[in-house]
Amino acid sequence: MKTWDTLFTKQKPEEIKDNLFEIIGKEWFLISAGTPDNFNMMTASWGTMGVFWQKPITICFVRPTRYTFGFMEDSDVYTLSFLGNKNKDVHKVCGSKSGRDTNKIKETGLLPVTTGHGGITYEQARLVVECKKIYFDDLKPVFFLPDEIEEGIYPNKDYHRVYYGEILNVYVKK
Fold it and tell me: Global pTM?
């Protein structure tokens, strides 16, 4: 497995030039957690980046029913990997198939790369945000969900866990 420094250069979080609404909501990204020998990834299109407790952070959401959830729970580090719009087929596989039953690496052709703090990203990524988990909580629908959202997104009441991660590194494809 290659390491980040052969494919990416580091930059500061505040140097990200992308429109976050575009890359999160339309390009999508992979949330990956685990070790180089045992990890999983999933497609996400919900999330945010900003400042919390005077630290640059990401916030991402994972349902407890997702295979990636266990990896997020067991890992101190996770990555958000932006693959560009040309990799929508990868996102379709990683968003619709479970790592419990499918070898997503084999099916998608993703090439894993180890990050500076031992996280996992992929050679195909154009932008990677490496995070240290600093806080999590479960969504509490009683406060915010209108009935049509509850019925449409959470018919099984499997509310997302919200992970706050301090941004450790930002990597941009060389």
Answer: 0.93
